[in-house]
Amino acid sequence: MTANDTRNKRDTLVVIGNGMVGHHFVEQFIEQGGLDRYDVHVFGEEPMRAYDRVHLSEYFGGRDAESLAMCEADFYERDGVNLHLGAQVVEIDRAQQEVVTAQGRQPYDQLVLATGSYPFVPPIPGAEGNSRLVYRTLEDLDAIRAASAGARRGVVVGGGLLGLEAANALKSLGLEAHVVEFAPRLMPVQLDAEGGAALKAQIEALGVSVHVSRATQAIVAGEEYAYRMNFQDDEFLETDIVVFSAGIRPQDALGRQAELEIAERGGVVVDNHCRTSDSNIFAIGECASWNGSIFGLVAPGYTMARCVAAQLAGKPCEAFTGADMSTKLKLLGVDVGSIGDAHGATPGSVSYRFIDEANAGYRRLVISPDGKQVIGAVLVGDNSYYDTLLQYAQNGIKLPQDPSSLIMPVSDGAPVLGADALPDTATICSCHNVSKGAVCCAVDEGCTDLAELKGQTKAATGCGGCAALLKQVFEHELTARGVEVDKSLCEHFPYTRQELYGIIRVEGIETFDELLKTHGRGHIGCDICKPVVGSILASCWNKPITDPALVPLQDTNDTFMANMQKNGTYSVVPRVPGGEITPEKLIVLGEVAKKYDLYTKITGGQRIDLFGAELHQLPDIWSELIEAVRTGHAYGKSVRT
Amino acid sequence: MKSCVGSTWCRYGVQDSVGMSLVLENRYKGLRSPHKLKFAVSGCTRECAEAQSKDVGVIATDKGWNLYVCGNGGMRPRHAELFATDLDDKTLIRYIDRFLMFYIRTADKLQRTSVWRESLEGGLEYLKEVIIDDSLGLAEELEAQMQHVVDTYECEWANALQDPEKLKRFRTFVNDERGDPDIHFVKERGQRRPARASELHLIPVTEEAL
User: Fold this and answer.
1) Who among A565, A580, A600 is closest to B191 (CB)?
2) Three-state SS for B114?
């Protein structure tokens, strides 16, 4: 009865948009306990639940839609959230407090807009069909795939972040890829002139042609290819498909229809708590305009989502006061990083530049006018400097004596910013906004396992770029608390592999049982320590691994001295030293392969692999081979190719 | 072990790379280590055997052999680093003996030489000091340990075939001599390959009514 009473009092929250930010909002809302207060309805226009747009180009690299999904298929259902997919909201009725879809009306008490953005296609005469493709959703990608059938060349209009991703996608579809950019360089927002030039050189080396300072004026029928793109000054480029990636526009149509306040350059205007001009409606992510700016990155969208989720759940929340637009990415395999004031636009700022013409590498460090802080950086070709530079920039850490050392090539043993130099406020994971302080907190509460730490704090579970830094901080904090970082091999041996090797050598131990009795715990060992000890014993004493006492220590392949394949059969690889083999021996291999119907292939290591033997056939096969050839140890952790 | 055909046949070869690869493979065959070890020997700097992508790479020079170590292909490729130049046969083998045993002694489990090298404090210089200058006074011990492994080599299959007891494990079922009836093959390009699930003629199981 009481349950029913509380149920009646519940309000309804409607979320429009099920992209990355919309999904993150729901996740955070659930986590903050918001489901105690609200029934939640989520409307998504696309037929697929939220997926990872950041890694969209991997869709052509073999990842399917399901593996790009942001959550398990039953995530929403499990928590009682009503997810309506393929349901476009066509109207917000503010007077009635209802949203309208083709399927009907849904009342709301609070409404969150997370409608994202759409790709901007400049009004170019003749752009239509395969010369007017865009790159944003899985459906767009399917359209590009369909258009690429029979096509030879593809052009992407727009040399920004998404444009280069799209060029990568065209390349992986087997097309000759071109990028056409209006500005005089690639990624004009994030990179300066030298950085853009270095990136262009690297990308062209990968076989993608880059045309900068080109404005497409019209698209007409082509002669050699389907279309011809006409630029200024009578220049042109022919192609079979054209993909536009010339920027995004906030998807604010519903905001306009509902007569919410709209920013001059588009986007639903929000305040520091992501509230729109209607106090019952919030906007987050790319559809929201804060202080005249749209944030086209996932991290600021997540910050907004957390802010609104906390408010609605009645938890304390931090105001949204802008976001760091620093980015680190790999475009077509080329590292690109941009931090803060990448262009050195701050008056009086001083820059250091490192230019490597041999490898088209470029690094720039921008220092504040007083020479005390990093305020910006550009990296092309090597992002290993990024984490350290970002920490310097975000936390105002005092510069080293020679600031240029921060971007100079790293030789062995060069100092990097140690985990202890970071303040507690330092952001370790930007995706989930996890600070060093939060990591320390988790350690204080008794977390001593990296996997557990990731589960608790979510750090390093977004883009994963901070994994190395997280591990470093974690281990440093453990050590600082006097918790010995446990380097034991497993629960049975409180030693590292190296220490066990020393013990076995020095004491002349020849069996696992003896080692366990004298230096270990328990009676049987496990899958971690047995193969390690088996390998050490073999390295030291070289007794046949077929000895009854040694057999149980071996991995699968070593146990039967053959390589197990996917259907449970084995392959046999005889030794062919140096790849030299006599015709007589080749004939023996051929005869045996023929008799046992073994699939035969030359390996990368100049040997011959015989596949498809069943376990019980191995002794017979080897008894026929052994006069001519010996085992190749392809099954062991030993010398091969 | 991968090798090119070398000076015996090739117009460019300057040393007998096949001969050297036979010496090395026969020396280190059967050696167990924390992870697999790949070798290659090239007969000239054209590097047909791609030795610079191996744990141990040997490239012929006019005067002898250049030794490269700690290369890797695979998921995270790493070029091998030039470790010593113009070595004679004996010195080459001595350095490789020491290098391999030092790796086996100090590496973590399942750690390839490339990762081991990257985590090695002091880097390549330190490794050269230990192996070439014998800064730790280990050289003799490492060589003796390797010699023991070389002297005790035995083909594991030859060993197993001599002992009927050892062959008893090679059975799919403990109570039936025959193979596994669930393994199916199809013919493709003149040879057998495992059947895919869609190619199996599975008999539908009808649920029994309760």
Assistant:
1) A600
2) helix
d(CA A118, CA A247) in angstroms, rounded, equals: 9
Is the CB of A633 less than 8 angstroms away from the CB of B1? no
Q: Count chain A–chain B contacts defined by CB atoms under 8 A.
A: 192
Exposed/middle/buried for A436, CB within 10 Å: 0-12, 13-18, 19+? buried
* Distance (Å, whole) CA B94 – CA B98: 6
CA angle A44, A48, A54 (to 5 degrees): 95
- Give the H/E segment covering residue A336: strand A334-340
List pLDDT tens digits, range B188-210.
Answer: 999 999 998 788 776 666 555 55
**Where do runs of H (alpha helix) occur along A173-238?**
193-205
Nearest to A116 by CA among A390, A305, A376: A305
The burial of A474, by beta-carbon neighbours within 10 Å (0-12 exposed, 13-18 middle, 19 or more buried), is given as: buried
Q: Kindly state the helix (H) or strand (E) to which residue A570 belongs, with its residue range.
A: strand A570-572
A184 against A6, higher pLDDT: A184
C-alpha span between A300 and A433 (Å, rounded): 10
Q: Which domains does chain A carry?
A: 2-117+250-312 (3.50.50.60), 129-246 (3.50.50.60), 324-417 (3.30.390.30), 422-486 (1.10.10.1100), 497-554 (no CATH), 557-625 (3.90.480.10)
Identify which of A546, A568, A612 has the shortest CB distance to residue B180: A568
Which residue from B124, B158, B167 is facing A626, i.e. has the nearest CB?
B158
Give the pairing type, strands A374-380 and A334-340: antiparallel
Per-residue model confidence as pLDDT tens digits over A183-240: 899 998 889 999 999 999 999 988 899 999 999 999 999 999 999 999 988 899 999 9
Q: How high is the ipTM of this complex?
A: 0.92
The residue length of chain B stands at: 210
DSSP assigned state of B36: -
pTM, two decimals, is: 0.53
Q: Does A468 touch chain B (CB under 8 A)?
A: no
**pLDDT tens column, A283-311:** 999 999 999 888 888 888 999 999 999 99
Interface test with A, best of B5, B32, B100 (most A CBs within 10 A): B32
* Residue B20 DSSP label: H
Phi-psi region of B47 (alpha: psi -120 to 50; beta: other; left: phi over 0): left
Mind telling me how many Å the CA of B57 is from chain A's nearest CA? 11
Whole-number Å distance between alpha carbons of A581 and A558: 25
Complete edge-to-edge strand list for the sheet that includes strand A241-244: A133-134, A241-244, A153-157, A176-180, A209-211
Map out the domains of chain B with their CATH numbers: 2-161 (3.30.413.10)
Residues of B whose CB is below 8 A from A633 = 29-30, 156
